[in-house]
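Schema walk-through. Below, the input block comes first and the output block second. Nothing else is stored per chain. Lengths vary across the set, and this one has 356 residues.
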Amino acid sequence: MNFRLSTSFIVLALFISSFSCSNKSNRSRKPAVNIQVESVHKKIIYGDDITIGIAVKLKDGELQETKIFMDSVLVTSNKAAEFNHTLKRFKNLGKHTLKVVATKSDGVEGIYFKSFEVLSDIIPEQYGYEVVQSFPHNEAFFTEGLEIYNGFMYESTGENAKSAIYKTNLKTGKTLQSVKLADRYFGEGITIFNNRIFQLTYKTQIGFVYELESMALVDSFRFESKEGWGMTHDEKHLIMGDGTNLLTYIDPVTYKPVKKIQVYDDKESALFLNELEYAEGYIYANIYTTNLIAKIDPATGKVLAKINLDGILTMSNPDKPIDVLNGIAIDPVTKKMYVTGKFYPKLFEIKPVKKG
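--- output ---
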């Protein structure tokens, strides 16, 4: 290489490098934010005062303002580099996300996130059970939804190409009326509200609506959750589960979500909420793959009690599979509670019995 050309190239490279470094050093740098979330307990409990500690570190420039958002809602703002903000007697169970935006006077922002979790302040009461009586149950039913209405049992069954809704005689298990789903649909939870049967499907994000007396399909709707599991209703809304600890309230006319609650006990989230039943102001839910039923306060999402049904089905037949406990029905007139499971040969009337 020509020496003169080489020297010129090096000088040019040094000039460009110097310019680049100079330009980089003049670029405004975003603020760094440290976020601390604390309460008087090691884990945050429903009703605690929650202290959010903010410390902003600047590498250049001046701080204009720091904003705190919780679950996308503005909570407070402050011009100080370090400050605390207290959420007094915080009463929202579950996981929450803080977003902190620190803005410098030149408009450059530093955006940071931190999550925290709030547990229930109630230790659930523990219940066993007493079997009052039992009735025949179709062993071919892969039970996904169960409800009593006007003295009849309505049951939704799952599995593709086998899903249906059955109206049966409660005492004999005899099918009186039925409607089958198209083969591509996997039936899930049902509930009867305003003389209509509402039914979820598993992974197709679609629900069906039937006229109660004729069981004729009259409508369908889409839902947000990736999966449909259990369904029930209170005085105003449909309530659906998606296999997590979330319960979504849905307008029965527009099918739009109204609100969501997160279900927790004093230790953790109540995952795998399955078949649902609403009775006398409480929600009951099977916990999938267990013999537990959770009694839930719909106002807060707290698990108030757990009913352990271990041993309720002692019979077995190697030629006929038996799957998990799933299905809770409470007669709105007699207040009697009935339970069954997927491929169970029996439907049980039970009475919860408090332990201790």
